[in-house]
Write a structure and sequence with these properties.
546 residues; alpha/beta; Nucleotidyltransferase, domain 5; five-stranded mixed beta sheet; three-stranded antiparallel beta sheet; 20 helices; 8 strands; 57% helix
């Protein structure tokens, strides 16, 4: 390209750049003019707190403070930026003028009923309702609450008792079966007063085991059999159960024997032959198995007093202070013991707690030996011979502890458990009574055998029936057990259970179908007669032969 052409192109390029610079300057000056002439409008932040539904923002007032007004009561609150909305939230929940469509209207009667339930269920004092903080909380939950005094609360609880008692009496009226009872008597040493507790045990129409306390009251002296019988009979009559008694389980106090004779006579004389005791009260008395077991074991433990005393004092020594507990923990760690359960102190009236104390102490045998080396005040370390005897005693008592747990069950029937467990006790005592390894254990077992023979020489017939009625056991298990004890009398003992079971069935049959034994069956009775009755008649005529 020649020189004139290049100069022409350069001039055109310079003109284009000048035009672009001029246009950019005009745009910038126009934007600056708009920014100066356009007014500034601040953006208002939306109030998102839920409490603002109940409040109106008033803005800045004459005193220079920002306030909000409650839409219900008209009260004003300062709502500066640094104050937050906590005060608004509190007033929103407490505002007396605020309508509460979802909250039920306060019912003073329902409130008293609920309060009586709380006192009963949690075993609270009547003055609980007068506690300052309890009333403050009630006022917070409902400003319309009406408080009551402790006397009113006591009256409400008693009224609730009367209502529940009437319901339970109605249940007993409709109950068609028999009811078993347990009665326990004791004296409170602190106030020197006697008490009696009577509990009813029955199976309802839904086949559920029920336990209801009928009486828990003071028993005034003298604690004779006649006074106890009167208290028990009055309780049964008050609940309408004097015609539905099957058995009464008691401990082995002497007064209970005379009480049962008096009570049996009153029940038979007042009820008559039709609704009296089954089999003339033959099965009325049932000895408390747990109490007898306690007496048997305590008779054996009396021969191991030195060992038990040393272990009891050793446990007391360790638990006397925190420093001793720390020292014993070091001894346990040094011995390499990793047992989870720690030491426990027994209660003198409960043999199973003594067994628990002995069993736990045996696990820390080496720790006690180390403690004896470092603690000068510790003087109750059992000897090696005593430790070995303790192991054998634990082996002897362990089955008794398991059996005691079975006997003490309240959530399941225990009648079918009785026979097998008592038989196991007798067989174990026979085994240890012939033990040749340790004379002390043998002497202990023989002492327990004497106590066993005193109370359980003859097994309870009514409880043996529980095993016979268990479809897993029946009479075969009784025959097998009796043969292992004494083959010469096994069949005779099985026959006793069989005969009593037949007579008991016939008693129930008479009470269920009295017309069958008095007159010819009606057509309706012929149609509704159970086929099992004929089968049972055949069984009865054949003397339960299998």
């Amino acid at each position: 390209m020649d020189l004139p052409s290049l100069e022409t192109l350069a001039v055109m390029d310079a003109e284009n750049k000048y035009i672009e610079v001029q246009s950019e300057g005009e745009e910038e000056s126009h934007e600056q003019t708009l920014s100066v002439t356009r007014p500034f409008k601040p953006v208002r932040k939306r109030r998102r707190a839920k409490c603002w539904v109940d409040f109106t923002h008033l803005g800045l007032e004459d005193d220079g403070k920002v306030r909000a007004r409650c839409n219900h009561c008209g009260f004003k609150f300062v709502v500066e930026k640094n104050h937050g909305t906590s005060i608004l939230n509190r007033h929103s929940t407490r505002c007396p003028a605020k309508p509460r469509p979802d909250a039920p209207k306060y019912d003073h009667k329902a409130d008293r009923e609920k309060m009586s339930e709380i006192i009963i269920y949690h075993d609270l004092l009547f003055k609980y309702i007068e506690y300052e903080k309890v009333r403050e909380r009630d006022r917070f939950l409902n400003p319309d609450v009406q408080h009551i005094c402790r006397q009113t609360a006591a009256a409400d609880v008693y009224k609730r008792y009367e209502i529940e008692k009437a319901k339970l009496i109605e249940v007993f009226v409709k109950h068609k079966g028999r009811v078993c009872f347990t009665a326990d008597l004791w004296t409170a040493r602190s106030v020197v007063m006697g008490y009696i507790c009577i509990t009813a045990h029955f199976i309802d129409e839904n086949w559920r085991l029920n336990n209801k306390i009928l009486a828990f009251c003071n028993l005034k002296p003298p604690y004779s059999g006649e006074e106890i019988a009167k208290a028990v009979y009055d309780c049964l009559k008050g609940w309408g159960l004097e015609k539905k008694v099957f058995t009464i389980t008691l401990d082995n106090a002497k007064a209970n024997d005379s009480m049962l004779n008096i009570l049996k006579h009153r029940l038979l004389s007042s009820n008559g032959s039709s609704n009296g005791l089954l089999c003339n009260g033959k099965f009325l008395n049932v000895r408390c198995s747990a109490h007898i077991l306690n007496l048997i074991v305590k008779a054996g433990l009396e021969l191991a007093t030195s060992l038990i005393e040393n272990i009891r004092e050793s446990v007391k020594f360790v638990k006397a202070s925190e420093s001793r507990k720390d020292s014993f923990a070091i001894c346990v760690e040094s011995a390499g013991i990793t047992s989870g359960a720690g030491l426990s102190l027994d209660v003198s009236t409960r043999w199973n707690s003594t067994y628990e104390m002995l069993a736990r102490a045996l696990k820390f045998r080496e720790a006690f030996a180390i403690l004896n080396l470092y603690e000068r005040g510790y003087k109750w370390l059992p000897s090696e011979e005593e430790w070995e005897r303790g192991v054998k005693i634990c082996d002897l008592l362990k089955p008794f502890n398991t059996i005691s747990t079975y006997f003490s069950g309240v959530k399941y029937p225990t009648a079918n458990v009785y026979f097998i467990q008592v038989w196991k006790i007798e067989m174990m005592l026979k085994k240890y009574a012939d033990c040749k390894d340790d004379g002390d254990v043998r002497t202990m077992a023989r002492a327990m055998q004497k106590k066993f023979a005193k109370y359980w020489n003859q097994y309870s017939v009514i409880l043996a029936m529980g095993a016979a009625l268990d479809p897993r056991l029946k009479l075969d298990i009784l025959r097998s057990a009796y043969q292992k004890i004494d083959p010469r009398t096994s069949e005779e003992k099985v026959q006793v259970v069989r005969d009593n079971l037949i007579s008991l069935y016939e008693e129930y049959q008479k009470s269920a179908n009295p017309s069958k034994f008095s007159a010819t069956l009606t057509p309706h009775e012929l149609l509704t007669e159970s086929p099992l009755e004929d089968d049972m008649d055949d069984v009865s005529s054949s003397n339960f032969s299998y």
